[in-house]
Amino acid sequence: QVQLVESGGGSVQAGGSLRLSCAAFGATYSMDWFSMAWFRQAPGKEREGVVGIDSDGRTAYADPVKGRFTISQDKAKNTLYLEMNSLKPEDTAMYYCAAAPSPVVARSTWTLPTVYTTWGQGTQVTVSS
To answer: What's 34-64 look like in SS3?
Structure first.
């Protein structure tokens, strides 16, 4: 069974930066077999896809974060990262990482929460103006 654990959230002022991490644990888990994504959910809003990455490195970003956020992965460490720069108050949300056993970016399904089989518990990001 795969377990995802996020970390790195916190409170920053607008214009600041944060780096989120998502460590994957599981005896048979490998990032070579899974696509990954970061989602976020603000209070009273639906969970939305922020960025997805397939095992071959193909990525897709939501328009609001393009040019500010960067996803990366260290397969040797089974860890996914999200570098967030030029943060805005509207980026405030709980951020979740998720794993899917299919190429979600290639199939253009990366924004659909239902394609992901494993979710982390989330890490809170708060951006003040």
So the answer is: CEEEEEEECCCCCCEEEEEECCCCCEEECHH
C-alpha to C-alpha distance for 76 and 89, rounded to whole angstroms: 34
Structure tokens at 57: 């490195």
8 A C-beta contact, residue 63 and residue 111: no
pLDDT of residue 25: 87
Report residue 54 as tokens.
């397939």
For the chain, count helices (H), then strands (E). 0, 11
Structure tokens at 127: 């951006």
Distance CA 36, CA 85 (A): 20
The series of mean pLDDT values per 10 residues for the chain, 129 residues long, is: 93 98 81 89 97 96 98 92 98 97 94 96 98
**Residue 32: in which H helix or E strand, if any?**
none
Cβ-based burial of 80 (10 A; exposed 0-12, middle 13-18, buried ≥19): buried
Q: How far apart are CA 122 and CA 40, in angstroms?
A: 9
